[in-house]
Amino acid sequence: QSHWLALDITQPYLILKENEFNLTNFAPTRIVSIVQGNNEMLMEDGYIKNISILGTDYDETHCSLLKSSSRKYHCKGLIGRNYYKNTVLTMDFKNSALAFADDDKIQPLPNSSKIPLVFKNTENLDYQTPYFYGTIDSVKVLMSLNTCDRFSEISPELAQELNYDIDQEYVKIKELQVQQFRTTSLKCKINENLLYSSPKGDEILEFSVGLDVLQDRLVTINMPDSCFYLEKAPKTPKEPQAQKNQK
């Protein structure tokens, strides 16, 4: 049976919502409780057998069953980057298309911008998380790529630094820029949990780029090269209209 799952490069493994599946091929190993700010998740770690992900069959692979979460996930599960660590993925959100191939078979498009990914340890996770740099209103900001949520998210500390009113759920930033790609008047959700997933050291994660920015872009994730590419999505080809007979 096939299921629609979201791609998530911020975590490495497979996460499935327990209430969406009746699994007989899952072997649990431990219960894990994760707290990030005011967000709590209860998961059951283990291994799942005989599963196919992105065209590859796995006799057994690591899996976490999400039993409960105070944050809503609008999908049945998340596919972490472990399943495309040797693969190049291109996501076309505008045309609802996904392509993937081995890294030596894909070349970046000539008009695309290469954005390096920086992998850093985080305070409360036992794996590295990829980040990159962009600017918000000319301020250099450490960001993450979020292909699962509709809205981009900003930390309340950064919103306050930029003189935005944080006494509301959303703010509108003037300009977001990643390489030559600019997005203006962007409505962003304030998320205090961004700081709780901050990398160790002086720099902190302050912004998450969501589908509101990516929906008009081609996003090519190249994990073997530790980077991703952005390009403006092509227009959906229109079907030719039948010409009217003239009398």
Quaternary status of these chains?
single chain
Task: Give the N-to-C terminal Cα separation.
Answer: 55 Å
Query: Which runs of at least 5 residues are low in confidence (pLDDT < 50)?
Result: 239-247
The shape is globular
Instruction: Name the strands of the widest sheet in spatial order.
Output: 1-6-2-5-4-3
Based on DSSP secondary structure assignment, what is the total number of beta strands?
A: 18
Order of helices and strands: EEEEEEEEEEEEEHEEEHEE
Q: How would you sum up the major sheet?
A: 6 strands, mixed
Measured as a percent range, the helix fraction is: under 10%
Number of helices: 2
Radius of gyration from the alpha-carbon trace, in angstroms: 20 Å
The class by helix and strand makeup works out as mainly beta
Mean pLDDT over the full residue set:
85
Our estimate of the beta-strand percent is: over 45%
